């Protein structure tokens, strides 16, 4: 996942498409065509790229490995990768069975490498633990597209693509800060339900949230870390609510664990505060759209990046670059912007939402 020491990104600019009506996404850059906004399927997968990049090239086999699809966002990652591969006549995708055991994932990737793939797309369960296998693939001349959870060294991948974890925190903090300022709330109590604290992504999200709130003169109040699961979300939220008899706002890092967070809120009979979610599930967007929930916004972390990773792997394996860019090769890193979904723009984002 995104980290603070990634190489500086080249400014991609505003190209032909505005993904979801917000800042440009990686998929729009990959498209390189001249039409209007890309169509989306009911599964939240952006339509296949058009233009030069989409022209059939040399047939390539792309290996794909990711953690177990044990919650909505991760399931959408795998679905997006498979859906994008199916849209290219020159791509064969060899996907391993998802696992949350680093040793098992290493073994699965070794099988892919031994099978003769042309490129590897990998979302490591643990970036540090999987770095060695990324280095091994790179040393064998197999380009690696490191998806979401980043390896510990750029020597292990050709290109990194992931979401903007720091930007998620900033977006959530800005929304909450502005809402409270507009409501004239002074000295607000702002809670936070984080993900797994040991992961760099959680640290980046929390830092962005804290620093954005500081620009309003606010600070984070009670904070609990969960585990990106419904059960942990419900448990830690129940504890936080019990310890905080009053809240003005709450940010939950992940819409999957948000199901448990909202259940705890309902069980406690609390509705005096506003809540912001994270990742952009369709479930969360529908609650925002209904207006009948404390959930008033969610900040996106789009799983469509997995489809973009497959497109990048295809181009690298075929020795091609992005048709929209002057440079002949693809960038070394791409960060997909985080959008803020509210009742005002939820209809634009809903087709790209994933199911928790």
UniProtKB/TrEMBL annotation:
<keyword id="KW-0732">Signal</keyword>
<dbReference type="GO" id="GO:0030246">
    <property type="term" value="F:carbohydrate binding"/>
</dbReference>
<comment type="similarity">
    <text>Belongs to the bacterial solute-binding protein 2 family.</text>
</comment>
<dbReference type="InterPro" id="IPR006311">
    <property type="entry name" value="TAT_signal"/>
</dbReference>
<feature type="domain" description="Periplasmic binding protein">
    <location>
        <begin position="62"/>
        <end position="320"/>
    </location>
</feature>
<dbReference type="InterPro" id="IPR025997">
    <property type="entry name" value="SBP_2_dom"/>
</dbReference>
<protein>
    <submittedName>
        <fullName>Sugar ABC transporter substrate-binding protein</fullName>
    </submittedName>
</protein>
<dbReference type="InterPro" id="IPR028082">
    <property type="entry name" value="Peripla_BP_I"/>
</dbReference>
<dbReference type="Pfam" id="PF13407">
    <property type="entry name" value="Peripla_BP_4"/>
</dbReference>
<feature type="region of interest" description="Disordered">
    <location>
        <begin position="34"/>
        <end position="53"/>
    </location>
</feature>
<dbReference type="GO" id="GO:0030313">
    <property type="term" value="C:cell envelope"/>
</dbReference>
């Amino acid at each position: 996942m995104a980290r603070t020491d990634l190489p500086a990104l080249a400014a991609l600019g505003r190209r032909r498409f505005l993904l979801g009506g917000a800042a440009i996404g990686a998929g729009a850059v990959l498209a390189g065509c001249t039409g209007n906004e890309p169509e989306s399927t009911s599964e939240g997968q952006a339509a296949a790229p058009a233009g030069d990049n989409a022209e059939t090239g040399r047939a390539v086999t792309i290996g794909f490995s990711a953690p177990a699809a044990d919650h909505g966002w991760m399931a959408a990652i795998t679905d997006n990768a498979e859906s994008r591969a199916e849209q290219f006549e020159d791509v064969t995708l060899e996907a391993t069975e998802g696992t949350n055991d680093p040793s098992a994932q290493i073994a699965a990737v070794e099988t892919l490498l031994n099978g003769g793939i042309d490129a590897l797309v990998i979302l490591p369960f643990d970036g540090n633990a999987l770095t060695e296998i990324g280095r091994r693939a790179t040393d064998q001349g197999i380009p690696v597209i490191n998806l979401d959870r980043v390896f510990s060294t750029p020597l292990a991948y050709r290109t990194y693509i992931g979401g903007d974890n720091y930007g998620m925190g900033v977006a959530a903090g800005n929304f909450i800060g502005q809402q409270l300022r507009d409501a004239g709330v002074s000295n607000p109590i702002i809670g936070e339900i984080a993900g797994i604290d040991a992961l760099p992504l959680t640290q980046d999200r929390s830092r962005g949230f804290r620093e954005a709130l500081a620009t309003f003169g606010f600070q984070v109040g009670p904070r609990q870390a969960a585990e990106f699961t419904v059960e942990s979300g419900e448990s830690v939220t129940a504890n936080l609510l019990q310890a905080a008899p009053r809240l003005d706002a709450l940010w939950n890092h992940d819409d999957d664990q948000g199901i448990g967070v909202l259940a705890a809120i309902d069980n406690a009979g609390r509705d005096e505060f506003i809540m912001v979610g994270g990742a952009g599930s369709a479930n969360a967007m529908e609650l925002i759209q209904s207006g009948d929930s404390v959930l008033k916004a969610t900040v996106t972390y789009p799983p469509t990046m997995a489809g973009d990773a497959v497109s990048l792997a295809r181009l690298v394996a075929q020795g091609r670059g992005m048709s929209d860019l002057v440079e002949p090769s693809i960038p070394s890193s791409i960060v997909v912007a985080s959008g803020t979904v509210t009742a005002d723009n939820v209809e634009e984002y809903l087709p790209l939402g994933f199911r928790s």
